[in-house]
Design brief:
By secondary structure, the protein is of the alpha/beta class. The chain has helices spanning about 30-40, 50-60, 90-100, 115-120, 125-145, 175-195, 225-235, 265-280, 295-305, 330-335, 345-360; strands at about 1-5, 10, 40-45, 65-70, 85, 105-110, 150-155, 200-205, 205-210, 240-245, 255-260, 260, 285-290, 295, 315, 325. Strand 1 and strand 2 (about 10) form a beta hairpin.
Length: about 375
């Protein structure tokens, strides 16, 4: 794929079958660059989890050599089709062995606890894993001369937005320990760049959704917290009704609005971020979203239309701390990375998620 940066073209190697709309010319990739990409070895922490496993699938399809580190606390070994090391990101012995045995060129760091409500109840769990253990990973990278990092951050760092859409310059005031833990590690990365020369791309995701275009991977959680899987449970008659929190938000229909990003588009953002780190040094922060928000009611309506199932709903009060609207301004990622979502329209997200749900539960 040709990406124009400051008026100059640069080449990014992607899998044309997965991102057909991005390719202006299928013959554009010279073999020399193909060889260079295939020689790069990427460590993916949390690569057995929902987003990490889809990123691994895309990396492998695009010619990268991949090693996964995952403690399988929420990920599944069956999601991984490359070398898997079962261990913790905070264990120095595991990290030393890994970096000694594998010549890692860059690290994609997905491993984290991600449940907002749980973080409020158990903040120590989130600060230990998402900050302290992540710092152990960063220190081990330095020890072994690995200075390229792509960090899976979150729109939760912004807290209650004062303006929509949200740019990367929006003030960061997290409203929960999960968002705080992500922001703390962002700051650590900035300092490590200044002092130790680490280069990093920080990707602030909005709402990850959908299942892989390949049909092989999707969200597996024992306790479902995300909206789309919750609605699909009702569609599959695994739950009787959907509880909608808040009908009095200052939005067009009174329900909360979110910017949903397909997991394959998130994977694309990571591959483009890798390319960025081959060109530039420093720390670069990007929102990864679509700039389009959908309300809870719109999501429910879309799922009813896509599945042909009736969704019974129950109204409940707002949850404390839930913003009325979270919508990204992702123009910086477009201009600097060449990122443009390919699969993040709501019908495609729902269709892939529903296909995965039916496959998983044999519906």
């Amino acid at each position: 794929m040709l990406v124009f940066e400051h008026g100059e073209p640069r080449l990014v190697i992607l899998d044309p079958k997965r991102y057909p709309n991005l390719f202006l010319d299928k013959e554009v990739n010279p073999s020399g660059l193909e060889e260079k990409v295939r020689g790069a070895k990427i460590l993916v922490t949390g690569g057995a989890g929902y987003i990490g496993s889809v990123a691994v699938e895309n990396l492998l399809a695009s010619g990268y050599d991949v090693v996964v580190l995952d403690n399988l606390s929420s990920g599944k070994a069956s999601n991984v089709s490359c070398p898997l090391i079962v261990g913790d990101i905070g264990d120095p012995k595991t990290l030393d062995k890994l970096f000694s045995e594998h010549q890692i060129d860059a690290v994609m760091h997905f491993a984290a606890f991600v449940k907002v409500e749980e973080s409020v109840k158990f903040p120590e769990k989130y600060f230990q894993n998402n900050v302290v253990n992540s710092l152990a990973l960063l220190n081990s990278m330095l020890k072994h001369g690995v200075k390229k990092l792509i960090f899976s951050s979150s729109a939760a760092v912004y807290g209650q937005p004062s303006s929509i859409p949200i740019t990367e310059k929006h003030p960061c005031f997290p409203t929960n320990p999960y968002g705080e833990s992500k922001l703390m590690f962002e700051k650590i990365i900035q300092w490590y760049s200044k002092v130790h020369g680490i280069s990093a791309v920080i990707l602030r995701y909005f709402n990850a959704a959908g299942a892989s275009i390949s049909g092989n991977l999707g969200e597996i959680r024992e306790d479902v917290t995300h909206l789309i899987p919750k609605v699909l449970q009702v569609a599959a008659q695994q739950e009787e009704e959907l509880r909608i929190f808040g009908q009095d938000y200052p939005t067009f229909d009174g329900t909360a609005v979110r910017d949903y990003v397909h997991v394959d588009d998130l994977a694309l953002a990571h591959i483009l971020a890798l390319d960025k780190l081959t060109k530039d040094q420093g720390v670069f922060t990007y929102n990864i979203g679509t700039g389009t928000g959908y309300s809870v009611n719109q999501v429910v309506d879309c799922i009813m239309e896509q599945t042909g199932k009736m969704i019974m709903t129950e109204h409940a009060p707002r949850r404390e701390g839930d913003p009325a609207s979270l919508v990204a301004d992702a123009s910086l990622a477009f201009s600097e990375l060449g990122f443009a979502a390919q699969y993040s329209d709501l019908p495609t997200i729902v269709d892939t998620a529903w296909s995965w749900h039916k496959k998983r539960f044999r519906l």
